[in-house]
Design a protein that fits this description.
0% strand; 5 helices; 108 residues; 50% helix; mainly alpha; Integrase-like protein; Integrase_cat-core
C-alpha cells in the first residue's frame, strides 16, 4: 500500500513544481485533498471515492447508544470504562469482506 505522503508528492508536488511560494503549495494541496476525497477511486474500498464510501458506511452504521459517554458515575453496574460498543460489521462493509477496524482505518 502506498503512503499518503508518497501519493501526494508523486501526484502533485513533483509534476507541478518548481513552486513559486508557500501559498501556491497550500492552495494546490487543498485542491488535491478535495480531489483525493471526492473524485479519486480507491481500490482498497471497492473502487469508490473516499467520500462516497464514508457516506455508505455511516448510513448503515446506527449505534444503539452514543459511544464515549461515561456512564460510570450514573450507575455502578456498568463496565469499568463506561463505554458502550456496538459492531458496525453489516451491510456494505460485510459484503465486501471488510472488518469494522479496516473500514475505520481506511476512513482515517
Amino acid at each position: 500500500m502506498e503512503s499518503q505522503i508518497g501519493l501526494y508528492k508523486t501526484e502533485l508536488i513533483k509534476p507541478r513544481g518548481p513552486w513559486r511560494s508557500l501559498a501556491d503549495v497550500e492552495l494546490a494541496t487543498a485542491e488535491w485533498v478535495a480531489w483525493f476525497n471526492t473524485t479519486r477511486l480507491h481500490s482498497a474500498i471497492g473502487h469508490l471515492p473516499a467520500e462516497e464510501f464514508e457516506a455508505i458506511y455511516y448510513a448503515q452504521y446506527q449505534p444503539s447508544e452514543p459511544v464515549g459517554i461515561n456512564r460510570l458515575h450514573q450507575s455502578r453496574g456498568g463496565s469499568e470504562s463506561g463505554l458502550s460498543r456496538s459492531s458496525p460489521r453489516s451491510g456494505f462493509a460485510a459484503s465486501e469482506g471488510l472488518s469494522s477496524d479496516r473500514c475505520i482505518s481506511i476512513l482515517t
